[in-house]
Amino acid sequence: MIHTKGLTRSFRVSGTTLEAVRGLDIDVEPGELVAFLGPNGAGKSTSLRMLTTLLRPTSGSASVAGCDVVADPGGVRRRIGYVGQGHSAADDQRVIDELVTQGLCHGVRRAQARSRADELLERLDLSGAAKRVVAKLSGGQRRRLDIAMGLIHRPALLFLDEPSTGLDPHSRANLWEHIARLRADYGTTVFLTTHYLDEADSVAERVLVIDHGAVIADGTSSELKAKVSGDLIGLVTDSEEAARRAAEAAEGIPTAHDFHVAGTAVRLRVERGDAALPELLRTLDAAGVALRTAEVTRPTLDDVFLSLTGRSLREDEA
Ligand SMILES: Nc1ncnc2c1ncn2[C@@H]1O[C@H](COP(=O)(O)OP(=O)(O)OP(=O)(O)O)[C@@H](O)[C@H]1O
């Protein structure tokens, strides 16, 4: 559905060349839900704008929904839906009119545009808002209307650029439920960008991590997390002396590594936290080290990003 080879885009900024996207090689198969995850400025929007024919690549090639983005941009546009970061509906128009007009712009006949609009409004829980003026919708309703506008011509592939940014947690969860239902109903391939770690983790079947214009990891969330070297065990003791002794004693645990002592706390990594913790507790007990708390944490996508780049994605999270 999406195949790129060496896709690159540079910009001239104050006399120098900025490589916003550097040699992107990606393959997305029909029906996949793929999240493009990366910090601000990583190159997500620039990539999306090339894939949706809004921006011409500097070099490389991209085939989207079977059409080349440079040789046949019209073909790409007919086959995809694109929901950008801004809103697509005009404030002073009625919801149903905006949807039907969008359908007409895509060459859908009026009667069909009307029936598809009714169906999408129902699927997106907007039927009650059909005759309301767009400006009167809530943030979540407005975002769902954007998605309806992106689907009115029944594209095989839907691009969503930061679809949930600016929504409260309840509206975000609700939006994802709707997107999941639309996929189940229409089999649409979805390619989205996000910088919300939890969202990429829970929603996407596959995550492409992008940094400085290049994909640095590609896989399911579990696959990516499995590459981080193990679970984190955090111990809190009564004193700095006890923390040092705890770290020394823990060195005897097979697979334990990356020891870090800070004040009364100790952190270490092990291959499997659930298996190592009982043995660690017995070892510390035998060494006479009293613990206040012990906690096992599974790796997160942020740990994945941290292990790949040495930086935390959370620093950039909105
Ligand atoms: N039209 C442009 N002219 C000059 N530089 C640009 C232009 N568009 C993007 N850039 C630069 O290219 C880099 C990548 O930007 P891009 O918007 O693709 O990142 P992003 O990952 O989508 O970030 P965000 O999450 O903030 O939207 C940034 O350094 C940005 O400043």
Would you give an account of this structure?
The chain is α/β, with parallel strands linked by helices. It folds into 2 domains: 2-225, 3-Layer(aba) Sandwich (Rossmann fold), CATH 3.40.50.300; 229-298, 2-Layer Sandwich (Alpha-Beta Plaits). The protein is 37% helix and 28% strand. The protein has 11 helices and 15 strands. The strands form 3 sheets. A 6-stranded mixed β-sheet has the order 7-8-9-4-10-11, with helices on both faces. Strands 1, 2, 3, 5 and 6 form a 5-stranded antiparallel β-sheet that branches. A 4-stranded antiparallel β-sheet has the order 13-14-12-15, with helices on one face. A hairpin with a 2-residue loop joins strand 10 (206-211) and strand 11. Helix 3 crosses helix 4 and helix 5 packs parallel to helix 6. The protein is elongated, with a radius of gyration of 24 Å. The model has no long low-confidence stretch (mean pLDDT 88). Adenosine-5'-triphosphate binds at residues 11, 13, 18, 20, 38, 40-46, 195.
